[in-house]
Amino acid sequence: MTAVAERMLVPVGPRVIDDPYSMTTVTLKLSHQRQWAAHRHPEHELIWGNSGGMLTVVADGITWEVPPSAGLWLPAGVLHSVKAGPGTEFFCTYFRPEAHAASATVPGLFGVSALLREVLLHMHRRNMPDEARSRAERVAFDMLQPLEVAAVEVPMPTDPRALFVAQALVANPADQRSLSEWALTAGGSVRTLTRVFTQGTGMTFAQWRIQVRVRAALTYLAAGVPVSVVSRRVGYETPSAFVAVFRRVTGRTPGAMMKHPNRGSHAPQELLRA
Fold this sequence. Notes:
InterPro entries: AraC-bd, Homeodomain-like_sf, HTH_AraC, HTH_AraC-typ_CS, RmlC-like_jellyroll, RmlC_Cupin_sf. This protein has about 270 residues and is α+β, with helices and mostly antiparallel strands. It has ten helices and ten strands.
Protein backbone atom coordinates (compact mmCIF):
# COMPACT_ATOMS: atom_id res chain seq x y z
CA MET A 1 0.00 0.00 0.00
CA THR A 2 1.39 3.38 -0.98
CA ALA A 3 1.73 6.27 1.43
CA VAL A 4 -1.00 8.14 -0.44
CA ALA A 5 -3.33 5.15 -0.22
CA GLU A 6 -2.67 4.81 3.50
CA ARG A 7 -3.86 8.38 3.97
CA MET A 8 -7.31 7.23 2.80
CA LEU A 9 -7.72 5.45 6.12
CA VAL A 10 -8.05 8.55 8.29
CA PRO A 11 -11.48 10.09 9.02
CA VAL A 12 -10.64 13.38 7.29
CA GLY A 13 -7.89 12.90 4.74
CA PRO A 14 -5.23 15.52 3.99
CA ARG A 15 -4.57 16.92 0.56
CA VAL A 16 -3.32 14.25 -1.82
CA ILE A 17 -2.67 16.44 -4.89
CA ASP A 18 0.69 18.13 -5.20
CA ASP A 19 1.01 21.58 -6.76
CA PRO A 20 0.78 22.53 -9.58
CA TYR A 21 -1.49 19.60 -10.49
CA SER A 22 -5.28 19.65 -10.24
CA MET A 23 -5.73 15.86 -10.34
CA THR A 24 -3.75 12.75 -9.51
CA THR A 25 -4.32 8.98 -9.67
CA VAL A 26 -3.40 6.32 -7.12
CA THR A 27 -3.22 2.60 -7.98
CA LEU A 28 -4.29 -0.01 -5.43
CA LYS A 29 -3.56 -3.74 -5.78
CA LEU A 30 -4.79 -5.95 -2.94
CA SER A 31 -3.62 -9.47 -2.17
CA HIS A 32 -6.22 -9.85 0.58
CA GLN A 33 -9.56 -8.33 1.52
CA ARG A 34 -9.29 -4.76 2.74
CA GLN A 35 -11.79 -2.36 4.26
CA TRP A 36 -11.42 1.38 4.73
CA ALA A 37 -13.51 2.83 7.55
CA ALA A 38 -15.80 5.78 6.89
CA HIS A 39 -13.75 8.86 5.96
CA ARG A 40 -13.83 12.04 3.87
CA HIS A 41 -11.48 13.71 1.39
CA PRO A 42 -11.00 17.44 0.75
CA GLU A 43 -10.81 16.52 -2.96
CA HIS A 44 -13.37 15.02 -5.31
CA GLU A 45 -12.62 11.33 -5.90
CA LEU A 46 -13.33 8.93 -8.76
CA ILE A 47 -12.96 5.23 -7.89
CA TRP A 48 -12.64 3.28 -11.14
CA GLY A 49 -11.00 0.48 -13.11
CA ASN A 50 -12.14 -2.33 -10.83
CA SER A 51 -10.72 -5.68 -11.89
CA GLY A 52 -10.17 -9.03 -10.28
CA GLY A 53 -12.60 -8.83 -7.37
CA MET A 54 -15.43 -7.19 -5.46
CA LEU A 55 -15.35 -3.43 -4.90
CA THR A 56 -18.10 -1.97 -2.72
CA VAL A 57 -18.45 1.65 -1.63
CA VAL A 58 -20.97 2.99 0.88
CA ALA A 59 -21.50 6.72 0.38
CA ASP A 60 -24.12 8.78 2.21
CA GLY A 61 -25.95 5.61 3.22
CA ILE A 62 -26.15 4.11 -0.30
CA THR A 63 -24.15 1.00 -1.20
CA TRP A 64 -22.59 0.95 -4.67
CA GLU A 65 -21.03 -2.03 -6.44
CA VAL A 66 -18.40 -0.45 -8.71
CA PRO A 67 -18.37 -2.27 -12.10
CA PRO A 68 -15.23 -2.71 -14.22
CA SER A 69 -16.07 -0.18 -16.95
CA ALA A 70 -17.46 2.62 -14.82
CA GLY A 71 -16.32 4.71 -11.89
CA LEU A 72 -17.99 6.02 -8.74
CA TRP A 73 -17.79 9.79 -8.29
CA LEU A 74 -17.47 10.96 -4.68
CA PRO A 75 -17.73 14.74 -4.22
CA ALA A 76 -15.36 16.41 -1.80
CA GLY A 77 -16.42 15.98 1.82
CA VAL A 78 -18.78 13.03 1.26
CA LEU A 79 -18.52 10.41 4.00
CA HIS A 80 -17.77 7.00 2.49
CA SER A 81 -16.29 3.60 3.27
CA VAL A 82 -14.69 1.14 0.87
CA LYS A 83 -14.46 -2.65 0.87
CA ALA A 84 -12.42 -4.59 -1.68
CA GLY A 85 -12.05 -8.34 -2.05
CA PRO A 86 -8.77 -10.23 -2.45
CA GLY A 87 -7.14 -9.86 -5.84
CA THR A 88 -8.91 -6.58 -6.56
CA GLU A 89 -7.10 -3.85 -8.46
CA PHE A 90 -8.54 -0.39 -8.90
CA PHE A 91 -7.64 3.28 -9.23
CA CYS A 92 -8.53 6.39 -7.24
CA THR A 93 -8.30 9.70 -9.10
CA TYR A 94 -8.52 12.85 -6.98
CA PHE A 95 -9.61 16.25 -8.32
CA ARG A 96 -8.88 19.57 -6.64
CA PRO A 97 -12.34 21.13 -6.05
CA GLU A 98 -11.26 24.71 -6.76
CA ALA A 99 -10.04 23.59 -10.20
CA HIS A 100 -13.24 21.68 -10.99
CA ALA A 101 -15.98 23.69 -9.30
CA ALA A 102 -18.68 22.69 -11.79
CA SER A 103 -18.45 18.98 -11.04
CA ALA A 104 -21.26 16.76 -9.74
CA THR A 105 -22.28 17.43 -6.14
CA VAL A 106 -23.72 13.99 -5.28
CA PRO A 107 -22.24 10.49 -5.57
CA GLY A 108 -22.97 8.65 -8.80
CA LEU A 109 -21.63 6.39 -11.52
CA PHE A 110 -19.49 7.91 -14.27
CA GLY A 111 -18.48 6.32 -17.54
CA VAL A 112 -14.78 5.50 -17.89
CA SER A 113 -14.04 4.98 -21.56
CA ALA A 114 -10.88 3.36 -22.86
CA LEU A 115 -9.63 6.78 -23.91
CA LEU A 116 -10.29 8.37 -20.52
CA ARG A 117 -8.55 5.46 -18.83
CA GLU A 118 -5.42 5.99 -20.92
CA VAL A 119 -5.40 9.74 -20.27
CA LEU A 120 -5.71 9.25 -16.50
CA LEU A 121 -2.94 6.65 -16.51
CA HIS A 122 -0.81 8.85 -18.77
CA MET A 123 -0.84 11.47 -16.03
CA HIS A 124 1.02 9.13 -13.70
CA ARG A 125 4.08 10.67 -15.33
CA ARG A 126 5.84 13.21 -13.13
CA ASN A 127 8.13 14.69 -15.78
CA MET A 128 5.43 16.27 -17.97
CA PRO A 129 5.78 19.99 -18.73
CA ASP A 130 3.22 22.02 -16.80
CA GLU A 131 1.43 23.17 -19.96
CA ALA A 132 1.12 19.63 -21.31
CA ARG A 133 -0.13 18.42 -17.96
CA SER A 134 -2.74 21.19 -17.81
CA ARG A 135 -4.03 20.31 -21.29
CA ALA A 136 -4.27 16.61 -20.41
CA GLU A 137 -6.15 17.39 -17.20
CA ARG A 138 -8.71 19.51 -19.06
CA VAL A 139 -9.25 16.75 -21.61
CA ALA A 140 -9.71 14.15 -18.86
CA PHE A 141 -12.24 16.24 -16.98
CA ASP A 142 -14.17 17.06 -20.15
CA MET A 143 -14.53 13.32 -20.88
CA LEU A 144 -16.10 12.58 -17.50
CA GLN A 145 -19.81 11.92 -18.05
CA PRO A 146 -22.29 10.75 -15.37
CA LEU A 147 -24.27 7.62 -16.13
CA GLU A 148 -27.09 8.80 -13.86
CA VAL A 149 -28.52 5.37 -13.13
CA ALA A 150 -31.34 5.35 -10.62
CA ALA A 151 -30.23 4.62 -7.07
CA VAL A 152 -32.53 1.93 -5.68
CA GLU A 153 -32.78 2.35 -1.94
CA VAL A 154 -31.54 -0.64 0.05
CA PRO A 155 -31.61 0.09 3.81
CA MET A 156 -29.51 -2.21 5.94
CA PRO A 157 -30.90 -3.93 9.05
CA THR A 158 -29.29 -3.27 12.42
CA ASP A 159 -29.82 -6.66 14.08
CA PRO A 160 -26.48 -8.54 13.85
CA ARG A 161 -28.10 -11.71 12.49
CA ALA A 162 -30.04 -9.91 9.77
CA LEU A 163 -27.07 -7.68 9.01
CA PHE A 164 -24.91 -10.78 8.45
CA VAL A 165 -27.39 -12.00 5.85
CA ALA A 166 -27.77 -8.58 4.27
CA GLN A 167 -24.04 -8.02 3.86
CA ALA A 168 -23.60 -11.45 2.29
CA LEU A 169 -26.37 -10.76 -0.24
CA VAL A 170 -25.02 -7.32 -1.12
CA ALA A 171 -21.67 -8.98 -1.82
CA ASN A 172 -23.36 -11.73 -3.88
CA PRO A 173 -26.90 -10.85 -5.05
CA ALA A 174 -27.09 -14.16 -6.96
CA ASP A 175 -27.05 -16.20 -3.73
CA GLN A 176 -30.26 -18.26 -3.85
CA ARG A 177 -30.45 -19.39 -0.22
CA SER A 178 -33.84 -19.02 1.43
CA LEU A 179 -34.33 -17.34 4.78
CA SER A 180 -34.63 -20.75 6.45
CA GLU A 181 -31.25 -21.71 5.00
CA TRP A 182 -29.74 -18.41 6.11
CA ALA A 183 -31.07 -19.01 9.63
CA LEU A 184 -28.80 -22.05 9.93
CA THR A 185 -25.77 -19.84 9.26
CA ALA A 186 -26.76 -16.54 10.85
CA GLY A 187 -28.43 -17.94 13.92
CA GLY A 188 -31.96 -17.44 15.15
CA SER A 189 -35.19 -18.89 13.85
CA VAL A 190 -36.85 -18.03 10.54
CA ARG A 191 -39.55 -16.19 12.46
CA THR A 192 -36.95 -14.10 14.29
CA LEU A 193 -35.02 -13.25 11.12
CA THR A 194 -38.25 -12.33 9.37
CA ARG A 195 -39.21 -10.00 12.20
CA VAL A 196 -35.86 -8.24 12.58
CA PHE A 197 -35.50 -7.84 8.79
CA THR A 198 -38.87 -6.11 8.57
CA GLN A 199 -38.22 -3.98 11.62
CA GLY A 200 -34.78 -2.94 10.39
CA THR A 201 -35.54 -2.26 6.73
CA GLY A 202 -39.28 -1.65 6.43
CA MET A 203 -39.44 -4.52 3.91
CA THR A 204 -39.88 -8.25 3.96
CA PHE A 205 -36.80 -10.33 3.24
CA ALA A 206 -38.10 -11.12 -0.27
CA GLN A 207 -38.79 -7.45 -1.04
CA TRP A 208 -35.39 -6.40 0.25
CA ARG A 209 -33.56 -9.01 -1.82
CA ILE A 210 -35.33 -7.82 -4.98
CA GLN A 211 -34.13 -4.29 -4.28
CA VAL A 212 -30.54 -5.54 -3.83
CA ARG A 213 -30.66 -7.43 -7.11
CA VAL A 214 -32.12 -4.57 -9.10
CA ARG A 215 -29.61 -2.10 -7.72
CA ALA A 216 -26.72 -4.43 -8.61
CA ALA A 217 -28.24 -4.89 -12.08
CA LEU A 218 -28.29 -1.13 -12.65
CA THR A 219 -24.54 -0.86 -12.28
CA TYR A 220 -23.94 -3.74 -14.69
CA LEU A 221 -26.40 -2.38 -17.26
CA ALA A 222 -24.86 1.08 -17.04
CA ALA A 223 -21.50 -0.51 -17.80
CA GLY A 224 -22.91 -2.21 -20.92
CA VAL A 225 -23.09 -5.79 -19.65
CA PRO A 226 -25.62 -7.83 -21.74
CA VAL A 227 -29.01 -8.47 -20.15
CA SER A 228 -28.55 -12.24 -20.34
CA VAL A 229 -25.33 -11.97 -18.33
CA VAL A 230 -26.77 -9.47 -15.85
CA SER A 231 -29.75 -11.70 -15.10
CA ARG A 232 -27.44 -14.55 -14.05
CA ARG A 233 -25.14 -12.28 -12.05
CA VAL A 234 -28.02 -11.02 -9.92
CA GLY A 235 -29.70 -14.37 -9.34
CA TYR A 236 -32.36 -14.92 -12.00
CA GLU A 237 -32.51 -18.21 -13.88
CA THR A 238 -33.96 -16.67 -17.04
CA PRO A 239 -33.65 -13.21 -18.62
CA SER A 240 -37.44 -12.98 -18.88
CA ALA A 241 -37.85 -13.35 -15.11
CA PHE A 242 -35.22 -10.68 -14.56
CA VAL A 243 -36.81 -8.30 -17.08
CA ALA A 244 -40.22 -8.63 -15.41
CA VAL A 245 -38.88 -7.82 -11.94
CA PHE A 246 -36.64 -5.02 -13.19
CA ARG A 247 -39.55 -3.34 -14.95
CA ARG A 248 -41.76 -3.57 -11.86
CA VAL A 249 -39.12 -1.80 -9.76
CA THR A 250 -37.83 0.84 -12.18
CA GLY A 251 -40.70 1.26 -14.62
CA ARG A 252 -38.31 0.54 -17.52
CA THR A 253 -36.90 -2.50 -19.25
CA PRO A 254 -33.20 -3.32 -18.93
CA GLY A 255 -32.82 -2.78 -22.67
CA ALA A 256 -34.20 0.75 -22.39
CA MET A 257 -31.81 1.44 -19.53
CA MET A 258 -28.86 0.38 -21.68
CA LYS A 259 -29.95 2.49 -24.65
CA HIS A 260 -30.78 5.63 -22.67
CA PRO A 261 -28.93 5.49 -19.31
CA ASN A 262 -28.97 9.26 -18.83
CA ARG A 263 -32.74 9.54 -18.71
CA GLY A 264 -32.79 7.97 -15.28
CA SER A 265 -35.70 6.10 -13.76
CA HIS A 266 -37.70 6.21 -10.60
CA ALA A 267 -38.78 3.20 -8.59
CA PRO A 268 -42.42 3.18 -7.49
CA GLN A 269 -42.94 4.45 -3.96
CA GLU A 270 -44.96 1.39 -2.96
CA LEU A 271 -42.92 -1.67 -2.14
CA LEU A 272 -43.05 -4.77 -4.29
CA ARG A 273 -45.24 -7.60 -3.18
CA ALA A 274 -43.24 -10.67 -2.28
